[in-house]
Design goal:
The complex is a heterodimer of chains A (432) and B (194).
Chain A (H helix, E strand, L loop, with lengths): L5 E2 L1 H9 L8 H17 L8 H27 L1 H19 L1 H10 L10 H22 L3 H21 L7 E3 L3 E3 L2 E7 L6 E5 L5 E2 L4 E5 L3 E11 L2 E12 L6 E4 L9 E6 L6 E5 L5 E2 L5 E3 L8 E6 L5 E6 L9 E3 L3 E2 L25 E3 L1 E9 L5 E5 L9 E2 L2 E2 L3 E11 L4 E10 L4
Parallel strand pairs in A: 3-9, 18-25
Antiparallel strand pairs in A: 2-4, 4-7, 5-6, 5-8, 8-9, 10-11, 11-14, 12-13, 12-15, 15-16, 17-19, 20-21, 20-24, 22-23, 24-25
Helix pairs in contact in A: 4-6, 4-7
Chain B lengths: L3 H9 L3 H22 L3 H18 L9 H21 L20 E2 L5 H9 L3 H12 L4 H8 L3 H39 L1
Helix pairs in contact in B: 1-2, 2-3, 2-4, 3-4, 6-8, 7-8
Classes of the chains: A alpha+beta (432), B mainly alpha (194).
Chain lengths: 432, 194
């Protein structure tokens, strides 16, 4: 024991590990050599095969292929004209440099004889001479058949071109052309010969899918454009969609708590944008008056429903359940809310905590079973709650949803066993 | 086997055989360094490969002054530091004050009680930051000021991490020692019985 050296921590590690050797795995050597070979390949080195050689070979290959194919097309497509050209070439050359012809031509053009034509002029002449000379050659060589060949070659080339090029034709149908907000329209693409398309819905929305579905959440007139693309061409088709505003139904009762039996009740209409009204007063009485007055024979549980229509036939309705009792069983939803922008809150709310309408939740009483689901305008489920104490905080997977209209659907049962299913839309507003 | 200078000269020419020879001659030594810095063997082998590629491609920069192994060691340490920085982004180590100063622990060790494998293992159990500071200070001999610059930390962080690293190592070695003594005692017992 005594002969063993004692040391402190640093010394221990230094002496044992400073020059410690560890045998690497065999695979390390292999993978290193592979990486090294690759790096060497990428490095420029005139002696060894590397990427620069490979690129050179590749480029040479491409060039060879291009040459080969262009030669092929030439000999196949314009065989006739090539022959003719080769036939006239010596003539053209001799013409260019034959002073006689140049002088003749200059004379014809009223250029003073004796002026030596400049280089530019000669080159101009080159084209002027060529054309008649070619004709001459064809004629003199009795090249009628050759000419025909040339023409036919040109024709086949042209017809082939038209066959390949397809011209897209845009057209589509819309499921409805007008309707009430929120208006869902299904567009079916009936275009021909197109590769891709783009829908522009007129309210800032667009889509690139073949058939489209869109929900308009603001009243107005929208010009829907479908552009289809194919073969380098564009074609478009247009349709106009009109979206009418929805009226809003609302009423009050006077007096709020009528005396038991035989009392006259006046209904006060708060509806807007409506021209037609229908009151279902709960005891079988129906009225179309603006503000009806009704006398109930006996006290009890009356559900009063007011339905209103706008000039375009858009409807809205509101129901007051158990209008005169201490209503025990009801569920109602707001039509807008402003999510908290500071982040998801989890959706818990109470009457006092959600005074600023950060959570979309019902006002309800006597609900036992409950399921609330929120959908986007395209029908994607983004929120679900089975707890009436948890509403939607306006977030989906931790991200604040876009402002706009969302569809809610609720189903459940009241304490008295009565089940309810309701559906409607809610507007998510952007808070500040 | 070629000599060191022949290998260096061959690698400078990118000669394949010399490159392989350098690997065969020095990889064990270099992996030993990597093992101290890495969190495990796989990481160590990654660092080794990266370092070797650097060595192969910058061997022309080795001027021949100073030892070749020292030059390579420097490259490995630098690669390990780069590797540490790169991987730091992905790992979240919360620097809890978990190692309360354990200076009361054993401060003297027998040289041959622990094997280097055991010491590597103990090092691997340290948080990466502690391990870097310990390696750089205790073994490479950097000053705290230099370490702070290299790792981009405060000089006091370097100092405190170093003392915490030491405390943690002591604690771990103490546990290891007890385990080892227990097993050797058991071995001796069974040895007597048979």
């Amino acid at each position: 024991m005594d002969d063993k050296r004692n040391m402190d921590l640093e010394e221990l590690f230094r002496s044992k590990l400073e020059n410690a050797e560890v045998i690497p795995d065999l695979s390390v050597r292999k993978s290193l050599m592979r990486k090294l070979a690759w790096k060497e390949f990428l490095r420029f080195n005139p002696v060894r095969f590397n990427i620069y050689y490979a690129a050179g070979i590749f480029a040479a290959g491409i060039a060879a292929a291009v040459l080969f194919f262009s030669d092929n097309s030439k000999s196949e497509g314009v065989q006739g004209s090539t022959e003719i050209k080769s036939g006239i070439r010596p003539d053209t050359v001799s013409m260019l440099y034959s002073p006689e012809i140049i002088r003749k031509e200059s004379a014809g053009r009223n250029v003073k004889p004796g002026l030596s034509p400049s280089g530019v002029k000669t080159s101009e002449k080159k084209y002027e001479f060529k054309a008649p000379q070619e004709d001459k050659v064809i004629a003199s060589e009795g090249g009628d058949s050759l000419k025909k060949m040339e023409i036919s070659a040109v024709v086949t080339e042209k017809t082939a071109g038209t066959n390949i090029r397809k011209i897209p034709v845009a057209s589509f149908t819309a499921s409805v052309l007008e309707g009430c907000i929120p208006l869902k329209v299904v567009f079916i693409n009936t275009s021909l010969l197109y590769d891709s398309c783009r829908w522009i819905f007129g309210d800032g929305g667009s889509s690139v899918s073949a058939n489209a579905e869109w929900i308009y959440d603001k009243p107005g007139t929208y010009r829907v454009v479908l552009n289809v693309y194919g073969g380098g061409q564009t074609s478009s088709s247009t349709e106009v969609i009109t979206v009418y505003p929805k009226p809003s139904a609302g009423f009050g009762i006077e007096p709020v708590n009528p005396a038991e039996g035989n009392s006259e009740v006046k209904f006060i209409n708060y509806s807007s944008d409506a021209i037609r009204y229908r009151w279902d007063l709960g005891d079988g009485t129906v009225s179309t008056a603006f503000e009806p007055v009704h006398k109930y024979d006996k006290s009890g549980k009356y559900n009063i429903k007011l339905t209103v229509w706008s000039e375009h036939g858009c409807a809205d309705s509101i129901t007051l359940i158990n209008a005169f009792g201490s209503s025990d069983y009801f569920i109602e939803f707001p039509n807008a809310f402003i999510p908290n922008r500071n982040g998801p809150t989890g959706g818990y709310y109470s009457a006092t905590s959600d005074a600023s309408a950060h959570i979309f939740h019902p006002v309800a009483s006597g609900v036992v079973d409950y399921q609330l689901r929120i959908f986007t305008r395209t029908g994607i489920l983004i929120f679900e709650s089975n707890d009436i104490n948890i509403g939607w905080d306006g977030y989906n997977k931790g991200n604040l949803c876009e402002p706009g209209v969302y569809i809610w659907k609720v189903r459940g049962t009241f304490k008295n066993g009565e089940s309810f299913v309701k559906m409607g839309d809610v507007t998510l507003l952007r808070g500040n | 086997m070629l000599s060191e200078s022949e290998i260096i000269e061959g690698c400078a020419r990118h000669d394949r055989r010399s490159q392989q020879m350098l690997y065969d001659k020095y990889s064990r030594f270099l992996l030993g360094i990597c093992m101290r810095y890495a969190g495990d063997r796989a990481e160590a082998e990654d660092i080794l490969q990266e370092s070797l590629l650097k060595i192969y491609f910058s061997i022309r920069d080795y001027l021949g002054t100073g030892s070749f192994t020292g030059w390579m060691r420097k490259i490995v340490v630098n690669t390990a530091i780069t590797y540490y920085h790169r991987n730091l982004k992905h790992k979240y180590y919360i620097d809890i004050e978990e190692y309360v100063s354990m200076e009361t622990g054993v401060s003297s060790f027998e040289e041959d009680f622990f094997t280097s494998d055991e010491l590597f293992k103990v090092l691997h159990e340290l948080p990466p930051g502690y391990r870097m500071v310990f390696n750089l200070y205790a073994i490479e001999g950097y000053k705290h000021k230099e370490i702070a610059e290299i790792l981009g930390i405060d000089i006091n962080t370097s100092k405190s991490q170093y003392s915490r690293a030491k405390a943690a190592l002591r604690e771990k070695l103490e546990i290891l020692r007890k385990l080892k003594e227990k097993y050797t005692a058991e071995d001796n017992k069974t040895g007597v019985q048979t």
